[in-house]
Every structure is written in C-alpha cells, then in structure tokens.
Amino acid sequence: MSDLFAVKPVLLWSDALIFVLVATLVMFFIHLARDRLTRQRWTPVFASPVGMGSFIVVMFYVLIAVLDSIHYREQLAAVDGSDNTSAEEVHYSQEVRSLLDDVLSRLKENSEKTYSAPFSIYSFSKENVTLEDGTVIREYPRLDGAGSHLESEDGKAWDIFTRSIEAVLIGLLISGALIALQVQWRFRCPPEGCPLDGNGKPLVTASRHIPWKTLYGTVTALIVLTTWVLSVGEVYHILGTDQVGQDVLVQAVKAIRTGVLIGTLATLLTLPLAIGLGISAGYFKGWVDDAVQYIYTTLSSIPGILLIAASVLLIDVYIETHSDDFTLLAERADFRFLALCFILGMTSWTGLCRLLRAETLKVSQLDYVQAARAFGVRHSRIISSHILPNVTHIVLIALVLDFSGFVLAEAVLSYVGVGVDPSMASWGNMINEARGELSREPVVWWPVCAAFIMMFALVLAANLFADRVRDAFDPRAKG
Amino acid sequence: MTDTPMTSTPMEQQSAETPLLMVRNLAIELPVESQNAFLNPDAKPVELVKGIQFEIQAGKILALVGESGSGKSLTALAILRLLPNALKITRGSVRLSGNSLFDRTEADMNQVRGRQAAMVFQEPQSALNPVQTLEQQIGEVLKLHRRPGKQEIRDRVVELLQEVGIPDPEQRLSWYPHQLSGGQKQRVVIAIALACEPDLLIADEPTTALDVTIQKQILELLNQLRKTRNLGVLLITHDMGVVAEMADDVAVMRHGEILEYRPKADFFERPEHEYSLRLINSLPDQSFRQGKHLAGPLLKVEGVKVWFPQRKGILQRVVGHTKAVDGVSFRIGRGETLALVGESGSGKSTVGRAVLGLEPLQEGQILFDGERIDNLRPSQFRPWRKRIQVIFQDPFSSMNPRKRIRDILAEGMVSLGLVANAREPEQKLIELLERVGMEAEHLDRFPHEFSGGQRQRIAIARAIAVEPDLIVCDEPTSALDVSIRGQVLELLLELQREMGLSYLFITHDLSIIPHLAHQVAVMQRGCLVEQGITEQLMTAPQHEYTQQLLAAAPGKAILRKV
Amino acid sequence: MLAYIIRRLLYAIPILVGVNLLTFALFFMVNSPDQMALVQLGDKHIDPEAVEQWKAQRGYDKPLFVNDREDSEGLLTDTIFYDKSVRLFALDFGKSDEGRDIGDDIQQRMWPSLAVALPSFAVGLMVNVTLALFIVMFRASIFDTAAMVACVVLMSISGVFYVFAGQYFFAKLWSLVPISGFLGGVDAIRFLILPVLIGVVAGIGSGTRLYRTLFLEEANRDYVRTARAKGVPELTTLFRHILPNGLIPILTSVVVVIPSLFMGSLLVESFFGIPGLGSYTLDAIQSQDFAIVRSMVFLGSVLYIIGLILTDISYTLVDPRVRLS
Question: How many domains does chain A have?
Fold first, then answer.
C-alpha cells in the first residue's frame, strides 16, 4: 500500500446499522421489482408525483448519511502531520474521517477565527489589525477562507453570479447525461414496453406508472444544488461560519447522518420487541395479553421525555465511570448515540405494540386463520405466514410516521441536554448554541437557520412520503 | 339497452294517469377524475347506470331486482340526488308527482327529501345516529318540514313508533339506537321515513340484514302501510322470494340496464329474458331429498354445551355463563347432510366450531367414527384434522390475501404431512381446481382476482384437498348472489355423491334445505328445538318456532307454484 | 359503574408498583450510588471520604433492600428502597440532592405550569376543532387540499423554531410582550400570551389534521346519509350529526393529558423563564439531580394513570353506547 492510501477503515456500530438499513432498502426494491402483489400495493405511493419527489429527497439525505458513515483513520506520516498526536506509539490519526469529509474537504479547510455572515468576506466582529505602516486599528478584518481572491466587496456579486452560472451549467450537464443514459436504458430494456410506439402493446406496468417528469426534475434540482454548493462553497461561506469559525453549511450537512439515523434506528431497534409482544398478545390472548398490556401501560405511563432524560443521565454516568472502554472520542459519542436511539425507541414502541395487538386480534378472528387452524397448522407458522404479512402495513406506517417525529425530537432533546453527544454534529446541538447567538447584537441568525432549513426539508419530505404510504396502506385513511 | 322487447310493459298499461314517480333515461357515471389515475392512466368514464326508465303509481310496489353491482342502489340514491360526490348523473330526468327533481336547487331538494319521498336503507345497525335519542331523530324530520311545537312532536313520534310496532313507545322516546334490536332499529328507520307522510318510499334492501322472522314482520309492515297510506314503494332487493311476495311490478336490472320490466304475475309465468329465467330458477328446487338408511353414524354429538364465562365486579370473577350452546345432540351418517338451521345468535356456528375442535366444551361429548374428539389438545386433534374440514361463509375473508391460490390449496396438505411442499403436488392441485370448475392457470393468482363465487369454489377445493370425510359448511352460500348460490350448492351435492362426503350444513336460509339435506335440526337460543327427516319436519313441523320460521320464509306462494 | 371505577383504581396499583421498581432499578442498580457520587463530585479528585460524605448526606449510604445491621424493625425500612421508593406511594418525595424539600417545590411550582399549560391546551383544542370542522365543511375542494398542505408544512417545522421566531418578532423586534419571565396575579397575563400562542401554533398542524380525519370518518357513515335523506341541510348535518359524533373520540382522547398539564412543558417553560415544574425538571436534568428526576417520573406516572381513569369515566359520560350498557 502506498502512503497516499494508507487508511484504516473504522466501523462504528451505527455505521454497521446504517449499512444494514441500506441493504434492507436494496432488498426491498428487488422484492418490489419481482413481486407483482407488492408492486401493486406500492404503486399509489410511487405513482404520485408527491410521493416520488419526497422519496427522492429523503433518499438524497440517506445517501449523504451513507457517505458520512464510511469511516476511516488516516495513517500518520513519520513526521508529525497536521493532527494533535504523539507520533511514536500511534500509527493512525485519532481523527476519524468519513468519505463525506473528503467531498467537503475544500469547504472544511477554509475555516475562520469566529463568526462571519453568509457570503461575507469580512469577519463578524472587529479585531485589532496591524496595517502595513505599523499602526493598529480596530476594524472588521478580511476573512482567511472566503473571497480572498477578490480585491474588494464591489466584485462580489458579479463573482458569485458567474460562479453560480458555471456551477448550474455543470450540474445540468451531469444530470442531463445521467437522465439521457437512463432514458436510453428505459426504452431499450423492455422490448415491447416503449410507451412511444402506439401499437397497443401492454406497457411494462412499473415504468408506466412512474411520474418520470417529477423524478427527473427532482434529481436534476438536487444535482445542480450539489454542484453549486461545492463550487461556490469553495470560495465563500454560503451559510457563514460559527463561533469558532467553522463553515456552518458543512456542519449542517454533517448533521444529516445524525438526523437520518435517529429517525430510523429509534424505531428499528425496538421493532422486534413491538412486533413480538404485540402479535403474541393479540394472537395468544389470555395471560400473555395481560402481561404485555401490563408492560406497555407501565412503560407508557412514564412521561416520555423524563424516561429519556433519566436514561440518558444514567448512560452518561456509565460512560464516565467506564471511560476506559472507549478509546476514541467517536466511539464514545457513537455509544451514547445508539443508547439514545434505543431509549427513544423504548418510549415509542408501546404505541406500535398496541396497534399491532389490536390488528392481530382482528386478523386472527378472520376465517383464513380459522381455516389454517382447522388444517392443524402450527402457531408459529400461522403467525409467520398469515398474521405477520397482514399486519406489516401497520409497522410500515408507524416506521415512516415516527421518522419525522424522531428527527424533530432530537432537536428538543439536545436542547434539554440529553441529546446526542456535544461532539457529534447535529441540528439539535446547533440550535442549542443558538440561544446565545440570538441574543447578540447584531443577531447571529445563520447557524440556527441553517439547522432549521436542513431539518425542515428532511421532515417535510418524510411527512409527505409518510402521507402517501398511509393513504396507500391504511384502509381507513381514504377520505 | 332499453330496446328489449316490452310487449306489455307496466308503463303502457298505466300511461293514462300521471305516475307518482317517473324515471326517464337515467344514466350515472364514474368520471375519470374519480378513478384511481395511478392504476389506470388511460381510464375512461365508466357508465354504471345506462339510461334506464320506469315509473311507480301511488299505492303500488315496484321491485327493482338485480345482483350486487347491477346499479340498483345507485338508481335509488340518484332519485333523491344522494349519490356520493364521486359519481355524476349524466343524463335523464326524474319526476315526482310530475315535478322534475333534477332541475331543483339543493335547498329545494331538501324540501322533497323526507317530505315527499323518503328512504329506508339496508343496514339498520349504522343508519341511526348513535348519540341521539329516538325522539330527537324522528322529531328532526318533523321539525324540518312541519315546524310543530314540542308537545306535538312528542305526540307524533309516539304515534309513529306505535304505527311501526315498537312496544311502549312513550318510554322509548329517550332511548338510544344501541338499546334496540336490529329489527326494531329498522322499524325506527321506517318511522323516520314515514314521519311526514311521504308519497314515495324508496326501500333499499330493507330486510337483507335481518333474520327471516323479522324480515317477514317488516315486509308485512311495508305492505300494510302501502295500503293504508296509498304509498308508492320502490323496493330494491336481490331476493326473488321477497319479490314474489311483495311486488306489483318487477324490473330486472343487470350491468346498469333494465332487462325486463313487467307486472309480477306476467314476469313469473313467462319471463322473457334468459337472465330473468335464471333468477327465477335460482329459487332452489323444493323437491325433498330422500334420506338414506345409513351404515352407522360418522359424527355423534351428544349433549354438547359450550358456555362462555361472564365476568363482573371488581375482581372480574365469573358470575355466570353465556350459554352459546346448551345441550345439543345429533348424528350424521356417512354421505349424509344434516342442516343446522337457526337465526343469528342461535349458537349454530358455535356448534360447527366445536365439531372442528376450535371451541372447548363445557359438557357433553363429540364422537367421530366412534372415537371421542372433544377437548383434545391441538397436537392430539391433528390426526382428525385431515378428516374434518370446513368451508366458511365469507369468501373474501376466508383466504389470506397475500397468498397465491397454489399456497392456499396446498396449505392443508403440507401442514398435515400429505405432501412435502406447495410445489410438489402440481398435478393434484390442477385436478382439484378443475374438479371445482376452475382452471389450471388460476394457480398463481391471488384471491382478490376472483369473484365471490369463484372464491367459494376455491374454498371448497381447499377443503376437499385433504380428502376429508366430513365438511362443516358454515353458511357457505349466504354471501353469494342468488344465481351463483345454485351453482355452488350443485357442486357440493356433486362432490357428496362422488366422494361420499358428509356435511354439517349450517344455514339460516330455509329455502335451500329441501333439496340439500337429509336431516334438519332447528336451533333456537343454544338449544335444539326440533330435528328430523327433512320432508317430515318441513311439511309437518311440530315445534312452534319451526312453524314460525317456515311461515316467515318469503315467497312461499310462488315457490309452490313453480 | 362504581365497581368499574374501583376496579380501574385497583388496576393502577400494579402499574405504579411497576413504575416504581423500574425507576428504582434504573437509578440504583444500573448505577451504584458510588458512581453517582463520583459524577456529581467530578471524578478528578476521587476522595473516598468525600464520596461517603456525599452519600450519607443524601441517605444513599444505606443498603439497597435489606438492612442486616439493624434489628428487626429497621430490617426493611432503613434501606434505600424503602426511603427512596416505597415512600413515593405516600407522595412523600423527600429531599433533593441539594437538600431542598421536593414536595414543597412541587406544590409551589405546579401553578405557574398550569397557568401556561391549561390555556395552551384549551385554546389549542378549540382552534384545532374549529379549523378541522371548517375544512370538513369544504371537503374534497381546493381549499381542503391547500389546508392539508399547510398542515403538513406546519407539522414539519421544529417546535423550537416557533419559540425562536415568536420571541424574536413579538418580544425583541416589536416589543409587544416581555421576552421571558413570570409574575403572579394579573401581571401573569402579559407573560403568558406568547408561550400560550406558541403552544397553540405549534400544535395546529398535527391537531387539525387528526381531527379532520376523525370528522371525515364520521361524515362517511350511514347515519349521515340517513340525515341527508331526511332533508337535513348540509350545514345542519355538519353541526348536529357529524360534530357530536366526532367530538366523542376527540374529547376522550385528550382527557388523558389533562392531569399531566400540571407537569408543564420542559421546553416552553425554560425558554420563557416560567418557574414551573417543567423548568424545575429541566434544571434537575441539567444539574444531574437524581432525586428530583426520580420524583418527577413517579409523579408523571401517577398523573398519567389518573388521566387513564378519567378517560374511562369520560367515555361513560359522553357516549350513550357506553353509558347505558
């Protein structure tokens, strides 16, 4: 291995889980492509422009989260590198980097001393500046990492404009090429499925329903946005910098991983519990039902936020007293993060469990379950082949509905002080810092706005998608 | 369309006077924007009712007959302009006492609804507002159209309740719907309809959800009101027995068209359309099946009691029992059919579940082929599963919607160890499907792709797949349209002859029994009140309840004639 | 009816015991009192003396379940379990880790909490029901669609954003109300307007959407068709038939939170500096005062269970189907 690529992959537990998540998604799509019944049930979701658009936005967030989950540590050169390490014993940097860091490296490197407003080329606060003739005056100094190629403020607008045009054109070119390739493939792939030839052949059902215009439009918008951010962000701080001079945009993007993971893992981690207990209670009834009802009434009687706060406090105590078990800062943050997801899940699984119990009660009264019993089919098999497939829509709806709730909850929890580790980039932590920033004069509004906007886009897309899923799968939701 | 030969339509006969209701060229469609555009992008508007016409004279009953989906209920709703928003009336006219209803404003329509024309719906359980008292609900119509004083309303409501046969009407004024039985609720609905003395009553399957004895009472009530009040009635039904008993004229509807429209007597004697003939013939064969003398009983049910505990009080102690089945005994021989008859809640289905080993017995025993099969553990019952099978009432819930027909049919065979997996017995599965009149290509389809009748055939195939000796048939035909009912019953009879099957046939429908069953047992409130050979029991019923049931069966007069 | 309520009350006991055992396990068995002491004192200077002293001051130096040093009378009572858990059943919350009487604090602080939470709850409910009814009136029209889109957008905005925006515009920029703080008596109104307003606005999206679904469900029922067939005008149908039936699930589903209103809201109270139980809890969390957190968990469960019982009772009051069966 050459020195250039001397890296050591790091697999955090949450990384592993996000890969499992992606694998599940891929498997789901394979299933979708193969199974006619599944496809029929999902058609209303993906056939609607809103469903398709919101799905792509959510997937864009997931993609960023995945990029941010491929972690590694760089090997340190024999001579000390840029990091704070004693080079004798440690061969790898203490800093855990991800692929996303590499993508954003140019934006990350341009750090400042302190706050600076979006697109500004001057610092936010006055400093003592030594002029060439030796006099010291207090003024707003120029930024190190933004607009250093400019003579003065005058050329900024034109510079931003030209760079934007350039970036948008590149983005359009890339997305155009991608779409052209896809169109080519689409019209060639199904031999008789071309929608343009009017010979009355039945079209391939999947491609016929997909709202291609929305799909291409959303993808193009996202690609253009990416190229614009990457190219303009190189020389400006698009969303300004924070107190210690870091680019706010980079932080908001880094926080995506936290948001996406907390939204999915919190439900997924406790899903087996909810499914297992809910279905057993509804199917076996009797004392099993009593026991499960007792457990979930007890758990749900504790106010959610208090249970979370208490548990997180205890996790903190555990981490502090077992600090030897966590060698890396990232590992420690990751442990706390997973614990938080699990605790969040613990406060919400009772609702899903209750729904599943009620639905199982209903389904197990249906004739086909009775018929299976008349055939002497074993309980385990009745549950796995008759009950479970007919209650999955409830799990699915809960999963997508809870997602946005958890993303929003993270912000509140971090504010309360029981959220993710302060060292982890998260929207909650950004908002938490905003309390001081908003009372400054003039107001430092950009970090908190960046966090809100990034969060809002994800939550809105997730909510819209959840709506479509619920309409398609919940027989009661039609109205 | 309406160019069916109408040699002597009621319209022509009565064209002299102005009819009470005149429907001309009525068409209803499901417009494209109401269809699910995702599933069918090149959807066209679907015409659900295709330009029909009929009329009703005061004091007459027109029966609009057809099977589910024929558009008869839509027609009823369209007359009062109560169609759901998704549907549109595209053409035609409706005249009530000569006045066009389609030209009126919505506010004007509200003066017609309830006052000149009223409606009675199929499902009394949900047709009443659960949080209003009877006085409020009946009084509301009076208030709207008559604006009388409080006491007047009360007097009139009492009078109406009396008229529709609710006992103690004064006390029941403050009752809520859930405190009434299904039949009483339907009477209240009728009372609401009659409150402002309308000229026209539209009754959409008013008795379908009710037991036979109550059905008879409601029909009698309608008939009597029609005479005393000179009420014109549009009676929508699928039951030819009801038609035979009630109607003056008959209109047969299918696929949104009226196929035949004639006076009743004419219609039953010389039906012109082939479909009408089929409907009339769907009235089951009333010749009695002859009982065989049997080698020995296959199933012996002796003094069976199934009780469900009732819990009460702080500690939920068992304070008593709901005696769903309270001492039932009967025998079924090989190749024999026993019909277990009773109204809803009589415990007949519970008997079936007990025989299947799905319900523990409080007392008594069940012997199958000489061995006791009651109160066995699931594992002990397994050997008997192969020999006792079941067919359920509702063909839409009796199959797992996520499974292919192949897996549904093979489930029993795999579970009982007859074959290793669902792929193996391909040939056998095809044979089964063909046996019940389906095709091999149906194997890989899902249940929702079939009609009710086809599904019931598949359910039969599933039951006979394990080659049982006894099949418990729990109302297998009551969810089916009449013309399909006959075919399914015929299939069951055929299978019985070929395979020597015994049936425990649970039903509330007396009309299918003569041709089907060797023996009949009548159940009421958990007990058998009478049992015996079909012919004896049906021609000379001993018990009062059996007599009531038989007398209540609609259309007996016509049945005897046919 | 009485037997039913008594049964519900009896059913509450095992649940409270469960909550109690769970919190006890969480606070004393997952982490020992020694570990708590270390964290509280800061583990830089690990002085066994100081740890013991810290524990003794707060009564954490006793054995967990069984005290075998004592004679028989103190065998079970002179333990952490008895002191810190069993006493909660008598609503004896004991002292906080800083030595304040928790019971007194709660009594003092629950009224400001209620002053914010109750109006937010009541006004929010009224606003949501009214909006939902209005939307149902125009169901299946452009207005309906637009309102639903607006609801989803409102739902997708973080609650913290409403607080920031409200404080910035109403208090800082336009100086209509004070940014934060609280005074007793009539003055309280000035301080309450903004938190209540924000509480209401933050809940509009999800509340209106949910209630619209419930009303629509009622609007599609058969009895509504019966009413229309009677000749009842559309608007009357809405108010006389759909509204009363739709309100039943709405009212009974909100009853459960009424007792919990005493607990206040962590977020709103701390942002607006309202000295209620919410900010009390938040301070306790941030200063890692385990005794207060433990007490609030128990109090929260008690209030929730009271809410459950009230729910059952409210059903029997508003729904004749339950009342008369």
Answer: 1
pLDDT value at residue B294: 57
Q: In chain B, which residues touch A (CB < 8 A)?
A: 36, 38-39, 41, 353, 356, 358, 378, 381-382, 385, 388-390, 392-394, 397-403, 411-412, 415-416, 446, 459, 462, 466
A292: CATH: 1.10.3720.10
Number of domains in chain C: 1
Percent of residues, chain B, with pLDDT higher than 90: 18
* CA-closest candidate to residue B129, choices C252, C240, C247: C240
Within-domain flag for C324:
no
Select from B388, B390, B446 the Cβ nearest to the Cβ of A371: B390
User: Which ranges of B235-335 would DSSP assign to H, the alpha helix?
Assistant: 240-246, 264-269, 274-281
Sheet holding B502-507, edge to edge: B388-391, B470-474, B502-507, B337-341, B519-524, B527-533
Q: Identify which of A195, A210, A186 has the alpha carbon closest to the alpha carbon of residue A51.
A: A210
pLDDT recorded at residue B562: 40
Name all chains with 3 or more CB-CB pairs below 8 Å to chain B.
A, C
Question: Residue C237's closest CA among B82, A180, B276?
Answer: B82
pLDDT at C95 (0 to 100): 78
Of residues B392, B415, B466, nearest to A367 (C-beta): B392
Domain containing C240: what range?
109-288
- CA-nearest residue to C226 within chain B is B127
pLDDT average, residue stretch B549-554: 78
- Per-residue pLDDT reduced to its tens digit, A39-51: 878 888 888 888 8
Q: Please give the pLDDT value at position C135.
A: 92
Q: Where are the beta strands (DSSP E) in B80-167?
A: 88-96, 99-100, 117-120
CATH assignment of B286-387+512-552, among 3.40.50.300, 3.30.1360.20, 3.30.70.250, 1.10.357.10: 3.40.50.300
A367·B394 Cβ contact <8 A? yes
Which pLDDT value is given to residue A194? 41
Would residue A452 count as lying in a domain? yes
By C-alpha distance, the chain B residue nearest A45 is: B38
Give the amino acid at B500.
G
* A359 in any annotated domain: yes
* Domain membership flag for residue C79: no
How are strands ordered across the β-sheet holding B88-96? B46-56, B21-30, B88-96, B99-100
Establish if B147 touches chain C: CB-CB under 8 angstroms: no
The 10s digit of each residue's pLDDT in A21-41 is 899 889 988 888 787 778 878
Nearest CA to B472 among B528, B378, B393, B534?
B393
For residue A313, tell me if it sits in a domain.
yes
User: Cβ distance A64 to A28 under 8 Å?
Assistant: no
Q: What spatial distance separates the first Cα and last Cα of chain C, rounded to whole Å?
A: 10
| A interface test, pick of B355, B388, B411, B470 with most A CB neighbours within 10 Å | B411
State residue C112's pLDDT score.
87
Beta carbons of C297 and A448 less than 8 Å apart:
no
What CATH number did the domain enclosing C124 receive? 1.10.3720
The beta strand positions in B334-387, using DSSP E, are: 337-341, 363-368, 371-372
Residue C176 lies in a domain: yes
Which positions of chain C have pLDDT values less than 70?
A: 1, 29-31, 39-40, 42-46, 63-78, 324-325
**How is chain B split into domains, by residue range?**
286-387+512-552
pLDDT mean over A302-322: 81
Choose the closest CB to B446 out of A37, A48, A375: A37
| Option in A209, A374, A390 nearest B400 (CB) | A390
pLDDT at A373: 86
A262 assigned to some structural domain: yes
Question: What is the reported pLDDT for C45?
Answer: 60
Assembly ipTM: 0.84
Question: Residue A291 sits in which domain range?
Answer: 254-477
